[in-house]
Amino acid sequence: MLADRRAMLYGLGAVGLWSTVATAFKVALADLTPLQLIWVAALVSWSVIGLLMLRQGKLHEALRSGWKTAAWAGLLNPVAYYLVLFAAYDRLPGQEAMALNYTWALAMGLLAVPILDQRLTLMDVLAGLVAYAGVWTIATRGQVVNVAFADPLGVGLALVSTLIWALYWLFNARDRRSPLVAQWQNFSVGVPLLTVLLILGPGFEGFTLKGVGAGIYVGFFEMGIAFVLWQVAVQTVSRTSKVSNLIFLSPPVSLLLLYFIVGEPIMPSTLVGLVLILGGLLLQQWQKSPAPASQKSR
Question: Model-level pTM?
Fold first, then answer.
C-alpha cells in the first residue's frame, strides 16, 4: 500500500533522528550544564510545535482547555524527565545512558500492575529478568560477579529517568488531548519553570556556539520534528507494529554515531547488555499489542 510505504518513510525518518540524539546530548553537555541544555531544547521545541499548531489551526484549541492536565504533566515532561536524563548523560558514556534508557518500556509494564491494576504475566517476568540482566551488565561494565560500579549515581539517574517516563505515559493513559496540543501545553508549563531554575542556578554564563547549536538540534529534531514524523507514521499505517518495530534500529546506529563523532569506544559490556535489553523488549512486545504512538524511547 502506498500509505504504508509513506508511513514507513516517516517512521524511518523519526528513528533516524532519534538515533542521533545521544551524540547531540554528549556534544552539548561538553559545554552546557544539563539545565542549560534542557532550557535551550525545550524553548526551541515549544516554538516549533507552536508554529505547527498555528499552521494547523489548533492554537485556539490548545488555549481553550487541557491546562489542568498540563499543570502536572509538564512537570514530568519536559522538566523532571529531561533534567534527570541529561544528568545521567553528563555522568555516563553516551552508549551506557542510551542503552539503560531503553528499559522504560519494561518499567512501564511493571508499574502498570499497581497503577492500572493490570496483571503481571510470566512473559512480563521473563522479559524483565532478561532486560535487567542487561542493565546489570552495563552498570558493572561486565564485572557481573566481582561487582565494581563505575558510576552508581549515573546509572541510578538513568534508571530513574525511565521510571519518570513510564509514569508520565501511565498517568496520561486517559489523556484526551491530541498529541500535538498536549506536547505544546506541557512545554508551555515547563519552559517558564525551567527559565526560573536556570536564573536561580547556572544562569546564562558558559553558553557556547557549539553547545547552543547542539541544544537547538535536540529541541528542533528530537523533541519536535521526530515527534511529528512518528505521529504521522503511526496514524497512517495499516498496522502499528509495522512502524513500532523500527525503533529497534536506533540503538546500533546510536552506538556507531557515538563512536565516529564523539569518539567513544564501544565497550563489550555495552553490546552484551544492549542485546539483553532489546531481547527483553522483544519478548515483551511478542505477547502484547504495540504501545501507543507517543511512547517511544530516546
Answer: 0.87
Q: How far apart are CA 49 and CA 46, in angstroms?
A: 5
- The whole-angstrom separation of Cα 214 and Cα 209 is 9
What is the tally of structural domains in the chain?
Answer: 1
Q: How far apart are CA 277 and CA 106, in angstroms?
A: 9
**DSSP label at residue 249:** G
Over range 14-27, report the average pLDDT: 94
The mean pLDDT of 181-201, rounded to a whole number, is 95
Tell me which residue has cell 501507543: 292
- HSE at residue 131, side-chain half, CA atoms within 13 A, is 27
Asked, for residue 294, whether it belongs to a domain, the answer is no
Helix, strand, coil percentages, rounded to 5, for the chain: 80, 0, 20
Average pLDDT over residues 126-144: 87
Tracing cell 524511518 back to the chain, one arrives at 12
Report DSSP letters for 115-132, one per residue: HS-PPPPHHHHHHHHHHH
- Domain hosting 28: range is 2-287
Q: Does any domain span residue 275?
A: yes
Give the residue from 115, 113, 162 showing the smallest Cα distance to 134.
162
Q: Is residue 297 part of a domain?
A: no
Instruction: Kindly state whether residue 139 falls inside one of the protein's structural domains.
Output: yes
Handedness of CA 181, 185, 188, 193 (dihedral sign): negative
**Cβ neighbours around 117 below 10 Å, total:** 7
Greater confidence (119 vs 148) lies with 119
Residue of 279, 82, 284, 48 lying closest to 183 (CA atoms):
48
Mean pLDDT of 50-70: 91
CA distances 126 to 133, 248, 270, Å, are 11, 19, 21
pLDDT tens-digit series, residues 249-269: 888 999 999 999 999 999 999
